[in-house]
Amino acid sequence: MTVVYTRTGTPMGGKQSEALAYFRARAAAIKKNYGVEPEVKVRAGGPVGQVIMISRMKDLAEFEATKRRVIADTAEGKIPTAPDGVFASGEDALWLEL
Length: 98
Fold this sequence. Notes:
Blueprint: E1 3-11, H1 16-34, E2 39-42, E3 51-57, H2 60-75, E4 87-96
Antiparallel strand pairs: 1-3, 1-4, 2-3
């Protein structure tokens, strides 16, 4: 069953361009290092400037294996992390495609 992973970030006022740059850089690093094809989108309605990265994986096992690698590589500085003072809030979610 396909797994859809989302990471949503709501930027601080005046920080939308930095938020978008971070999401694009992180998506590019994930694509390069893990073969996952993240999509980056900006919300048109609702919280202004909210950014989301959407990734699809074939199943929960692939998600877990990839997530473990991303966490380790982020801790080692191989994957971009959110700059201080850019995001007011963030949320990760995991969805199952039926």
